[in-house]
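User: Hey, my collaborator sent me this sequence without any context and asked if I could get a structure. I don't really work with proteins. Can you help?
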Amino acid sequence: MPRKNEKIGYACAYTPLVLIDAAGYIPYRILPMGECPDQAGQLLHDNLCPHVKRILDRAISKDLPDLAGVVFINSCDAMRRLSDAWRHVRPDDNIILLDLPAIADEAAVAFFAKELTRLIESLSEWSGRRITYSDIETSIDLYNKLPDIFAKLRERLRQGKLPGGSTRMQTLYNAAMMAPFKKSMVNLQQALAEPELPAPVTDGIPVFLFGNVLADPEAFTLFESCGARIIDDDLCTGSRLFTPLEIDGNKDLVLQISRGLMTRSPCARTFDPSQPLKMAEDILKRTRASGARGVIGQTIKFCDPYLDRLPAVRETLREAGIPLLLLEGDCSLRSIEQQRTRIEAFIEMFV
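Assistant: No problem. I've predicted the 3D structure and written it out in structure-token form, which is a compact way to encode the shape of the chain:
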């Protein structure tokens, strides 16, 4: 049996958090934050994803809580390299690498379900307790309460009524990524019970933010200091991680979890051949639904999937008459701060 408060680390929004919870562990998102010295270059190429390198820096610096294991998702080559390097840096850790298909058709969903079954077997072995379908159903019921509360908080954010704005929102996301579902639910319910701002915040240009990793709440404070009011997001460290899993109790539970993960709002590494512009069209749809006047894309250096998709996003938004600013960073607040002049110039277009 897992000891109380034992954690399983993860670093990707496609990670099946409900299975980690069902095994009795706390899912713990290893975020690329902190002031660890740059050491990942000893094991990984310099021109590699900063997200991966900063996570590895934390492992090398022992800047992590005790972990009962780590679940890696083979979402890109950099993540696979992180898995390899982790075995070298922390050889005593329980580690599993799950292969993630690049498409989400039925064959891919069935394949990923087999990977999830492999994870269930590994978690059962690590914990010394077999995970039952009842355990998984209980975890799904708990998890599915979180997206509903987050949706209500995002609506307050969109209306300018959430105290603390997007900085507070990201703080809530970060806390929920690293806490038991029950504790997260209590924390989010407390946030929802707080009085709304008596008068909606209207300062700043409403902006939709998309990209991969941007976890530091201070980055959102910086956007606001430049005149941008972030009112919605599509980030793997934001709304993308907390989407409901639609479950029919009469069907294969693991297959349904696989389908739920594979068909949620995708990052750039997941591609639908029948809808090559889907990511761009989804960003446009959410921008319009939120009422944003502009879009900021914040991506990580050397992220090939996003580099491949961004031209379509740029063209789709251009045709719709929606201004777009593309930023590239290294997961540090320093790299965002260096973009201040560009952000301010972008916002001045709307004044």
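In plain terms: The CA atoms of residues 52 and 79 lie 7 Å apart. You can pass these tokens on to your collaborator as they are.
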